[in-house]
Write a structure and sequence with these properties.
The structure is a single chain. This protein is α+β, with helices and mostly antiparallel strands. Helix content is 17%, strand content 35%. The chain is built from three helices and seven strands; from the N terminus they run αααβββββββ. The strands form two sheets. A five-stranded mixed β-barrel has the order 1-2-3-5-4. The longest helix has 20 residues. The radius of gyration is 23 Å and the shape is extended.
């Protein structure tokens, strides 16, 4: 009886620990696809890439609803290992994600990060200002809208017995560098 209770307890603890480590990001979003197709490659020569599977992401520019699908225009960014778009000074271009059904545009605000996994369906040309721009169109199988990033000020402890201009205790040092969550 005692060994049975011990094994049951250890099993429950292991299950709890594994459940705590689980991520709410879908596996399809976290898993890189075969090949590394970039948006700008598809814009230059789309034919070889039609029906290729991609995992792209970036910031939402515009959301438009049609009769049977939603189209999201996205400014492409590099993705980190978990599939989240990374702020980078250089954009990878723009693409359009096609998602079946109606999505509320207010739930997908501008500048919000999104990752799409799907098949390159076609290209379409839309103007950006007066410039005719070629958009790769991805038929999304999976998408993940990343939570809004919050910026919090960094608080510091100032000890009055130390020199106030000593590097770690300089009064304005920590407030200049907020961190993100």
């Amino acid at each position: 009886m005692n060994t049975h209770t011990l094994s049951l307890t250890l099993t429950l603890m292991a299950t709890t620990l594994l459940g705590a480590c689980a991520s709410n990001i879908p596996v399809a979003i976290r898993t890189p696809v075969d090949g590394d197709i970039r948006v700008d490659e598809v814009q230059q020569d789309p034919e070889p890439f039609i029906d290729s599977r991609v995992r792209w992401g970036g910031e939402i520019i515009e959301v438009g609803n049609l009769a049977d699908e939603t189209r999201i225009e996205i400014l492409a960014q590099k993705l980190n290992k978990s599939g989240k778009p990374v702020n980078d000074s250089k954009s990878g271009g723009r693409f359009i994600a096609r998602i079946d059904g109606f999505l509320e545009p207010e739930d997908f605000p501008n500048k919000r990060k999104i990752t799409i996994v799907g098949i390159i369906d076609s290209t379409t040309e839309k103007p950006v200002g007066d410039y005719p721009y070629v958009y790769p169109v991805v038929k999304a199988g999976y998408y993940y809208l990343w939570p809004k990033e919050q910026t919090y000020p960094r608080y510091y402890y100032h000890d009055p017995f130390y020199d106030p201009f000593y590097y770690p205790y300089y009064p304005y040092y920590w407030n200049r560098y907020p961190y993100r969550h």
